[in-house]
# Entry
Amino acid sequence: MFKKHDKVGDDVYFNYSEEELLYLKRKDKKLAQVIDKIGYIKRETDTDLFSSVIHAIVGQQISTKAHRTIWQRIQNNYGQITPSILIKSTAQELQKMGISLRKAQYIMDFVRKVYLGQFVLSDVQKADDEEAITKLCSLKGIGRWTAEMILLFCLERKNIFSFDDLAIRRGLSMVYHRKNIDRNLFEKYRKRFNPYGSIASLYLWAVSSGAIPDMVDCRENKKAVKIKKSTASFEYMKYKYEYSSPIGKIILTSDGEKLTALCFDFDRYFSAKAKMAQYKDLEVFAQTVKWLDMYFKGEEPNFMPPIRLEGTEFRKRVWEILQTIPYGKVVSYGEIARKIAEKRKVPRVSAQAVGGAVGHNPISIIVPCHRVIGANGNLTGYGGGLDKKIALLKLEKVDMKNFFAPKK
# Structure
């Protein structure tokens, strides 16, 4: 039998028992085989909620190695990670540890709230999973996925199974030979593993990391030759990730480093090409998911993932202008045409040509082509569907009373 808290030196590992493993094995034969092949998994935990929140913010959007280095540097500099010690610090001092100023500001905001009693850690510890996630997400710099990881690796909650975790979904694809793990299918697995989703997560992470060499991701192997031939002119769309938004599935693509497309599932220009890319977990996808999570909460994101726009010089100029349109505002095709004409020092530029460039924008939402309308308030078309354009403008609280949809 496993001990309540397996501990080596000062390291404490996630607490789970043989009884819980037997429960999962009885519920799912394929997961049972995975558990038997891998054996008992030890994952370190940090049971101090205050330091765990800071640790989580530090680790966002950087490599595991960099995360460990910076965290060790912070521990060496401050000794104990407590509110009474860190309240004496500043964001600028924290930044010197190797983190961005934005992260340092998030951390100091959290420190002040805890120190002043505005954020009560014990309230999180006493709350149920969803309530605890909601409380943590009220902090600057903490999204749902980060909150879920804090619940798992700090509070040791037994039933955390995160849809937003790319590695878990990849593990599911590898174990169950599924090409697409959408939210509905994911929820079926969640119910199956309930109430021990956290333990299932440990094994799916291990599978995703290659713990079972002969277990491969079917999404990356089938029709590989066909994909290579079909996408020869779209090498910048080599990899993909699917995001479930409140208004429909969104497909992200990347060249391996930068975001190269963001389109809705039935986008008339890009979705077919994007679907032929290979699934892969990338840092740029994690950053884009964070951006989209903030956006669909009704917030204006305060950062931008790295992007790569491929197109003619004219289209690139139009896309540059799109990126200057403020959140919650709209401009017309004619206004963009006039800006380009002024820049080129020519009498006029065709608004229709601008419309073509806007329509072929590969990175929707982040490069906000939905904020462009026609003359007299005509909403015109949208690659992802006019209903999506309307939903995005309403999300940004744009006054829609003077706009109208084109007649079919």
